[in-house]
């Protein structure tokens, strides 16, 4: 069984994942650009595979897709760690940069690519979705 560990910048929040990701991608939506000043590299895991030590704070908003997003972050250092979407119940997005080994999972797609700034470096070898892609496993990206 796959196992991944990670945490926030200050170390107050640590987590482990005991599953393979359902999907991995770089998101170029405007919300992610505001979080990271760039696209964000993410992996989607079954929520039940995520085990957290330490406490997180949360911010909930409505995304461009219309889904309600709850973003969780460290209340001490502000590191953004996880997101849960009303459009993907039972799944949690994990920011790849928070993994102890961020190279352990490689993104396979660019999503919300139409929102990427003109200077963005989108890997043309990755699948592409100009907006919100269908749930993992339901359709292919172009």
TrEMBL record:
Keywords: Lyase, Metal-binding, Zinc. It comes from the Bacteria. The keyword Repeat does not apply. Residues 4-120 form the CENP-V/GFA domain. The keyword Zinc applies. It holds the Pfam family GFA. Coiled coil: none annotated. Belongs to the Gfa family. This is GFA family protein. It comes from Ideonella margarita. The lineage of its organism: Bacteria, Pseudomonadati, Pseudomonadota, Betaproteobacteria, Burkholderiales.
């Amino acid at each position: 069984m796959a196992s991944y560990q990670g945490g926030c910048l200050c170390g107050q929040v640590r987590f482990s994942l005991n599953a393979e990701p359902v999907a991995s991608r770089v998101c170029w939506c405007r919300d992610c650009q505001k979080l990271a000043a760039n696209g964000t590299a993410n992996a989607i895991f079954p929520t039940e595979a995520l085990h957290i030590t330490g406490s997180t704070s949360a911010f909930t908003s409505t995304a461009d897709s219309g889904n309600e997003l709850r973003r969780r972050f460290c209340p001490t250092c502000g590191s953004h760690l996880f997101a849960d979407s009303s459009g993907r119940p039972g799944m949690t997005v994990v920011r790849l940069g928070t993994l102890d080994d961020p190279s352990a999972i490689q993104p396979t797609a660019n999503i919300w690519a139409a929102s990427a700034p003109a200077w963005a470096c989108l890997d043309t070898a990755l699948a592409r979705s100009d907006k919100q892609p269908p749930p993992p496993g339901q359709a292919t990206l172009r």
